[in-house]
Amino acid sequence: MADSKAPPHDAPHDHGLAHTTPVWLLITILLALLFFTVLTVAVTSFDLGAQGNLVVAMVIATIKAGLVATFFMHLAWDKRFHAIGLAAGVLFFILFLSMVVADRGEYQIDIDRHGEKYPFKMK
Amino acid sequence: MTDTTSETQSNSETNGHSAPPPGDHEPHEKAEAHAPNGHGGGHGHGQYPHLAHHFDSPQQQFDAGKLGIWLFLFQEVLFFAGLFCAYTVYRAQNPEIFVYAHYHLDTTMGAINTCVLLVSSLTAAWAVRNAQLGEKNKLVLNISITILCAFVFLGVKYKEYAHKVHEGTLWGHHFNPEHELWELDSFKTKHPESAELAEKIAAIQFEGLPKREHRGEHEGSGAEAKAPAAKPAALPTAMAGATDSDTKVRRIQSLLFQASDETLHPLVAAGIIKHDILATTGLERPAKAHIFFGIYFFMTGLHGVHVVAGIIVWVWMLVKAKRGQFGPNYFGPIDYAALYWHLVDLVWIYLFPLLYLIH
Question: Using N-to-C axis directions, what is the helix angle for B58-93 and B4-16, rounded to 10°?
């Protein structure tokens, strides 16, 4: 149904121009989001190795973001183009991030030199 | 709008590629386009008072607006991407300052704000449903709750900012913390033994130094005003001026050697002591800790600006909703406002663990 301009008009929650999200689903999503919030706070008290905690936190955040985008932002029933666009934005984000991360060590010598030449002074 | 024939023509052309489903909406609306218009604007859309004259149908108007808001949201993702890149680079370069600085943040406040934003996202999504179904009163209620949540969020944010101003945990040269890491409750509760060890070391390190007396005053009287000259710029160049430093260093190092790895680790991770005990001459503050607060204020500040913009949009929507403008054929603005609001929520979903929940 995603590739047609409008969802079928006999769909139970359809109201003409766009899908209407049922209340029970909205509340379920909120409860899931709150659960993941509690989880992500709780998990910080466990040591999961060098970058383990960061990875887990980011995975949980991404699940939460996915829930918001899919249901609150209607992407599940929306035109696929919007989801593709958002995914493209996120992919470019990851691309920027990858280039920057791959490159960041290159200037360490300059940073150190600069730090020696202009040490940070407290006021 | 005199040539209704060509309008109908273009209408069928516009929708032609998308194979409109065999519902009762399209034909109905085309038929109505010929009817004398009801609002005297010469728009020819008498059936739909909110249909702008340059659109053929509510569906086209809605889809166009929705594409517009999504294009805006795509660039918002890229806009925030720059800041997340900055965050990543600085965290990769200086992991210890992020560990150090996150103890200065109040996780409870952050968690409350996360929940507040999530609830407001629910009410925003619910408002879209209300608008679609023409439930005016519920729509007004849900928009009001959304605005209320936004204000609660900003209120909590204000408390946090005010606390940081008071504590001196600010960006750049304004970074001049009132309390050292081991004096913070957040650090003490999480790592009681490490805090105790640090206290002992501090006692040796600042023993007999005028600095220490001032520090003592500050600790004792809490919010004692900042006497700028006397304010201890404290630690950064550890032990630089100590006279009998060799003895002190030896005493400090022997304390460190006696401590367990579990006790030392939190201090090492936060850049308070060096990994190599023999190279440690005393407690330090990570040299670039101010960078974290630069990033913190920039990211949360920009997010806060988005919340303020969201409030303005929602107030506008509230006015429109109170006038009963929304219904099954016109709810686009509520949908777009909600989409924007969800994106603001999405950004916070990442900011919260990245800033508050550093391990």
Answer: 40
What ranges in chain B are assigned the alpha helix state H?
4-16, 25-33, 58-93, 95-102, 107-133, 136-167, 185-190, 192-205, 210-221, 245-258, 261-269, 289-322, 332-356
Report residue A33 as tokens. Answer: 């989001």
Q: What residues of chain A lie within 8 A of the CB of B338, using their CB?
A: 72-73
Q: Cβ separation of B118 and A89 shorter than 8 Å?
A: no
What is the tens place of the pLDDT at every residue in B122-139? 999 999 999 999 999 999
CA dist., res. B97 & res. B48, Å (int): 58
* Residues in chain B where the model's pLDDT stays below 50: 1-43, 212-233, 236-239, 242
In DSSP terms, A14 is beta-bridged to A19
Judge if pTM exceeds 0.90.
Answer: no
Least confident window among A20-24, A46-50, B32-36, B198-202:
B32-36
Rounded to the nearest angstrom, the minimum Cα separation between B189 and chain A is: 12
